[in-house]
Every structure is written in C-alpha cells, then in structure tokens.
Design brief:
Structural class: alpha/beta
Distance between the termini: 39 Å
Number of strands: 9
CATH superfamily of the largest domain: Thiamin diphosphate (ThDP)-binding fold, Pyr/PP domains
Number of helices: 11
CATH class of the largest domain: Alpha Beta
CATH topology of the largest domain: Rossmann fold
Length: 299
Amino acid sequence: MLIALGMRFDDRVTGTLKTYAPNAKKIHVEIDPAEINKNVKVDVALVGDLREVLHEILPKIESIDRSEWLHLIDGLRGDSAVRDIQNLPDSGHLYAAHVINDLWREARGSNTVVVTDVGQHQMWEAQYYKHEEPRSLITSGGLGTMGFALPAAIGAKVARPDAEVWVVVGDGGFQMTMCELATIVQENLKINIAIINNGFLGMVRQWQEFFYERNYQATPLLNPDFAKVAEAYGIRNATVTQRSQVVPAVQSARQHDGPVLINFQVEQEDTVYPMVAAGAALHEMIRRPSPIVETAADE
C-alpha cells in the first residue's frame, strides 16, 4: 500500500507510469482535487487539508506486527551501507558527502538552519545532513533556481537572528548571487557559507557522464578564487582540500563572531546515487557500484 500525502505523482517520483507500483493499493491525500487521478489512478482519494485528514485517520490505524517488513528494510539498508561513500576510509579524496556529514555532526542542534541552493549538493544535503528538528532546512525544492541559497540565508538570519545559519551551495549557484556578500557585510550578519566546489555545473555534468560519454559541454566552470572574493569583502575565509581539514574549518567558522566562507574543493566527478534515467522505471535505478568506484580513474 502506498499512502501519498500532498504529492503530485510527478515523473520525478514515478519514473515511467506503466511500471509504477502496478500491484499496490494507493491512498492519495491532497487538498487540490485536480491532482487526484491526474497522473496515477488511486484506490482511495481523500480531498482535504493534510493536517485535518491525518487527525481524522490516525486514531483508526491499528498496530500490527511489522517485524518481517522491518527486517527486510534492515537488509536493504545494509546493502546500501556497503555502497555508501561515507563509509570509506580517508583515501585523500574529499567528497561532498564527507563535508556535509561532518558539518551535521558539528553544527547539529535545534538552533541550526541550513539553506541550500539547487543541484547535486542539495541532494547530498538531504542524504547526509540528518535533520532532526522542523524548520531547520530551507531549500528551493524543484521549483527554485540557482542562486537561491545566499539571499535566502540572509532572510533566514534576519528572521531568526539567534539561529546558526549555514549556506550549503555549489560553485555555480554561488556565482549567481555572490554579490550578496556585500549585504552580509553591510548588515553585519553572522552567516557561514560552505561552497561545495567541484568545478562543474554538477547535476548536468552527471547526466553528461552517464548518457553522453563525458562530453562535457557548458558544464566545466572557470571559477574565481572564492577565498579571495571573501577576503575582498573582509570576510574570514578558508580553502579545504583534505578530509582531515573539514572539522577544524567548521569549528573555526562556528567560533568566529562574523561571517565565514569555506571553499571546499571536492572530487570533481563524484555522483549523486541512486539516480533514475529519464523515462526509466524506478526499479532500473542506477546505484553506486560495489566495490565502490570513487572517481573516473578507478573505473
């Protein structure tokens, strides 16, 4: 059974429709009647405000033995864990997964807000920063555009001046609105900026790698020295190239009473896994190879 809460059954969720959960019962809770049965025919449609509907149905749910199902999930998690780059020993490569997971370990807490831009780093943040509090992530989702993170972080810091605000942004998106560094300095805002710098428009590059034989057109970036850009604004800065440098850099940024920019120079050809090709079925997802392929040179 699938219980869909306030979703649109868009192609990013379903893959090709003809293979999408053909044997599952489907309950769709949605406030907009136009979304019901628009893409996927459901067995039960509950039209209404999600909070109100959940309050109505939760008391009617019976508790049953789910040990067999939970055992199956644990097995799937174990298979995923051996493929997870986060579990690799330090081999000299710096990956975005390492950066974001270490950032979570250091900055986690009820008073931390993370703001992301659009791209690979946005997905890695969702995977490796384990949000435990509501309203601790501001992201543009699928409706945003590159350049969202920095100005959105300014808004978050103004709205919650006591919060610890971190910008997690790609090198391409950062260049869209990096002029807002001037606003941060002028308004004396304590905002920490983590640039996941892989030298590419990473999400497009990933598709070019998988489906266009690494024909990298319009994705390699000629970046400025981001640390020097920050220095020009009088912002404390650091450039990190090794995994062992991540935690000290994050700790130093948190202790400083002004804005800080950290330029994390990560592996260029790292990929977000799993991924589903356009028009493919969900069970045809591409997973990180096992044994793990770290870079193109390892293939």
